[in-house]
Amino acid sequence: MELKTAESNNKSRLTNTGIEIQALNISIECMLCQIIDNELDIDWIESVLYLTQQQKICLKTAIELDVSQVSELTVSLLAYNRAVEAMCLKLIAEGEILSNIAEAVATLSRKQQPLIERLICTIADL
């Protein structure tokens, strides 16, 4: 009985984590589009960096839950996340928004979406 409860709690935590990863990715992408379209200031990139760091925490949580099918996808997502984080840090270091880098960050964020959708489906199938 306790094992079944633990598995149920694990799946619930994993489901919530997957939803949070997806929500953060959508927020990151929306903010990047605003930055590119409206040439917004560096504070916006700092906000994107914060969201990216929150997403990394969720990804690490998903890995720690130790479900092999989920871990494989999460490791790939973590690689994209680190690239987005590095590019945000580069933009912050430059002190200005460079549109080509901001567009590259947006592209990386968009490329995460199919993996996140697969992650959500994988979690649902558990």
Report what the structure shows.
The protein is an all-alpha fold and 126 residues long. It has four helices and no strands. Helix 2 packs antiparallel against helix 3.
Throw out a few tags for this protein.
126 residues, mainly alpha, Four Helix Bundle (Hemerythrin (Met), subunit A)
Question: What's the structural blueprint in terms of helices and strands?
Answer:
Layout: H1 2-38, H2 42-64, H3 68-94, H4 99-125
Order of helices and strands: HHHH
Q: What structural category characterises the helix and strand content?
A: mainly alpha
The number of helical segments is: 4
Rg of Cα set: 16 Å
| Fraction in beta strands | under 5%
Short description:
The protein is 90% helix and 0% strand. It has 126 residues and is mainly α.
